Amino acid sequence: KAGVTQTPRYLIKTRGQQVTLSCSPISGHRSVSWYQQTPGQGLQFLFEYFSETQRNKGNFPGRFSGRQFSNSRSEMNVSTLELGDSALYLCASSSTSSPNEQFFGPGTRLTVL
Amino acid sequence: GNSVTQMEGPVTLSEEAFLTINCTYTATGYPSLFWYVQYPGEGLQLLLKATKADDKGSNKGFEATYRKETTSFHLEKGSVQVSDSAVYFCALTSGGTSYGKLTFGQGTILTVHP
């Protein structure tokens, strides 16, 4: 079974721009969660989607948004980028039979200049 | 709210040494506990898990026991290898309405020298 895939792996943007990151979960997994990883704040939960619905959300500003498609693929969007948005963005998927066991993708490294 | 506290790193050991990385938590309800490992340039890999008190998770020589009385989930390995060098994260989820949300500790960098 293929693992969680994320595209692109690396991204460089400038302040004020917006960016869209993509995540394809493991086949059959319907839950996708997103995390931001930075040296200062560590790993922080952004949001979770299940069957195209956001079920849970972390404490991030409204510039961070996401969506999920009918095939469970998910996208995350960050608008009006700030320097502090530079981070590794990780997505994880889980199955309905083991909802607490998350499998992570390799991440997208976003650099904001 | 939920929180996880890991021992400060970095931890530097010689090959075949004994490893302990401490992890304590604060959580509502009955959390599930996890250890994840991150190798350079990669995402997180689930190392082991425990879903209820006194459960012992184990994998690749690593072990951790869910201690509800001390709210701890310490990671141990009897004999580390150079290939174990990585960052280790303790994490928990409360389940219920905490859909898809893992709360992580700050991570512990482990370096193993030959």
Question: What can you see in these coordinates?
Answer:
The complex is a heterodimer of chains A (113) and B (114). The radius of gyration of chain A is 13 Å and the shape is globular. The relative contact order of chain A is 0.33. In chain A, strands 2, 4, 5, 6, 9, 10 and 11 form a seven-stranded mixed β-sheet that branches. Chain A has strands spanning 5-7, 10-13, 19-24, 31-38, 42-50, 53-57, 64-68, 74-78, 87-94, 103-104, 108-112. Chain A has 113 residues and is an all-beta fold. Chain B is mostly beta strands. Chain B has no helices and twelve strands. In chain B, strands 2, 5, 6, 10, 11 and 12 form a six-stranded mixed β-sheet that branches. In chain B, strands 3-9-8-7 form a four-stranded antiparallel β-sheet, with no helix packed on it. The mean pLDDT of chain B is 93. Classes of the chains: A mainly beta (113), B mainly beta (114). The interface between A and B is medium-sized, with 26 and 25 residues.
Summarize the SSE layout with pairings.
The complex is a heterodimer of chains A (113) and B (114).
Chain A: E1 5-7, E2 10-13, E3 19-24, E4 31-38, E5 42-50, E6 53-57, E7 64-68, E8 74-78, E9 87-94, E10 103-104, E11 108-112
Parallel strand pairs in A: 2-11
Antiparallel strand pairs in A: 1-3, 3-8, 4-5, 4-9, 5-6, 7-8, 9-10, 9-11
Chain B: E1 3-6, E2 11-14, E3 19-21, E4 23-26, E5 32-38, E6 44-50, E7 56-59, E8 62-65, E9 75-77, E10 86-93, E11 103-104, E12 108-113
Parallel strand pairs in B: 2-12
Antiparallel strand pairs in B: 1-4, 3-9, 5-6, 5-10, 7-8, 8-9, 10-11, 10-12
